[in-house]
Amino acid sequence: MSLGFLDRDRSIAPAGYSRWLVPPAALAIHLSIGQVYSFSVFKNPLLALHGADGSAWNLKAVGYIFSIAIAFLGISAALFGAWLEKAGPRKAMFFAALCFSIGFFVASAGATTHNLALIYLGYGVIGGIGLGLGYISPVSTLIKWFPDRPGLATGLAIMGFGGGAMIGGPLANQLMAHFKAAGQPSIPYTFITMGAIYFVFMMFGVFTIRVPAKDWKPEGWTAPVRQSALISKHNVAVAQAWKTPQFMLLWIILFTNVTAGIGILEQAAPMIQDLFKGVISPTAAVGFVGLLSIFNMAGRFIWASCSDLLGRKVTYFVFFTLGAVLYFFLPLTRLDHLNSVTLFVLISAVVISMYGGGFATIPAYLKDLFGGYNVSAIHGRLLTAWSTAGIVGPLIVNGILDHYVANKLPKQDAYPLILHIMSGLLVVGFIANLFVKPVSEKYWLKDSETLTPVGAAH
Amino acid sequence: MTEVKKSSPALIAAAWVIVVLPTLWGLNYTVQNALKIFAKPAPAATAPMK
């Protein structure tokens, strides 16, 4: 079967094609792959499965499924970013959908045969590659369609990744309940159904996405003559970009912001119950996690849109100053101090909105510094900061909690230390942001090089 | 001069509906759960006074 219809040349928008059709295409991909954030709904059902010999999996082994998926998200985004620039968003989205769905199908076989390695391979490795491809595929296209509002455009798409768990969680729960009631194997059938539903939904994105024609610009819009020195009119190729100090500084910015956010997200439900013992029920704690997911999603859109007005550097300064202060004061809201659940929830919601905002604003920051030429590929490499934070964040949180539990110290006393470490990390991010300067001329792409591009021609 | 055919507003609206509908469904489910955090815990059952 020829896949020529997926080529970049075949997805160039005809004149008159509305750019407002592009964000729904990107959202279809991100709302689907964002399902990974709700993977925890499968944990207990997977633990309840037994093999033919009566064996069962433990929590740690099941927990690796999510970790492998996130690790492969970062790896595939870094590896395939340059390919994506050449192949175009439609082909990348198609393969993202294929990998994501096949991942579910393979995982279904793993659940049926009680073979965890098959679930690691399916949902973790194959699905994880789908996540990485899907995450970066619409970014540069959106930036090209919205040169006047790059933050808003990427915020819209990346908001979908935050919101994907809100759909994936209840969808999985309802499907599992349905198959269980029908006397069918609930997890394997749920995996197959979700794989099929997400494939169809992602295909909507694949066939709706278009790249703008060369030299296209929004009607009546002209590039501003005077703008911030941090918004470059020059392009930097991915091979050069990742060697610049700016890339390293942005890597630190993303890493610190994500690690701090994980400090709360990783332990949200137990944390609120430990800090307000006897006041917060397990059901209310689940509600708290849901509330955080709403603010995580909203923050992606709101902060990224605000960054178009404030500038990226100022936006991250807000994250790192306000965030550091809020993380520092968050433990003071607990039962034996201010005893305010409302204040605790409010502060947590604001800091999680900035965690999401950090994710959504970074592509526009990259575009400002390195130009739009290879922004997806550069973004892909930068996402290794997320994978690293995904390992370091839980290590800090669980390491400290384990230490307190092992030494029979009150668990609630561990949280101030954890949150103060996260506050300190945000100060590191502040310093990194302070050092961000325009990219040196020696890294700029020469005009002659852009005639035979490594990546996007338009 | 050739006339440029613009995307129909109905098509644009339909594309947004496709992504907004499942999002609203998920949002509603999440908000319903999130509200439980502010709900007062049910009072413990007490024995009737004799």
UniProtKB/TrEMBL annotation, chain A:
Q: Which UniProt keywords apply?
A: Membrane, Transmembrane, Transmembrane helix
Domain named Major facilitator superfamily (MFS) profile is located at 1-441
The name this protein goes by in its record: MFS family permease
Signal peptide residue numbers: none
Work out whether the entry's keyword set contains Transcription regulation.
Answer: no
PANTHER family named in the record: MAJOR FACILITATOR SUPERFAMILY (MFS) PROFILE DOMAIN-CONTAINING PROTEIN-RELATED (PTHR11360:SF317), MONOCARBOXYLATE TRANSPORTER (PTHR11360)
Lineage of the organism = Bacteria, Pseudomonadati, Acidobacteriota, Terriglobia, Terriglobales
Transmembrane segments in this chain: where?
Answer: 20-41, 61-80, 92-111, 117-139, 151-169, 189-209, 247-265, 285-302, 314-330, 342-366, 378-397, 417-436
Q: Does the keyword Transmembrane helix apply?
A: yes
Concerning InterPro entries, the annotation shows: MFS, MFS_dom, MFS_trans_sf, Proton-linked_MCT
One of this protein's Pfam families, by short name?
A: MFS_1
Which organism does this record belong to? Granulicella aggregans
Q: Which GO terms describe its molecular function?
A: transmembrane transporter activity
Q: Which domain of life is it from?
A: Bacteria
UniProtKB/TrEMBL annotation, chain B:
* Source species, domain of life: Bacteria
Name assigned to this protein: K+ transporter
Q: Which organism is it from?
A: Granulicella aggregans
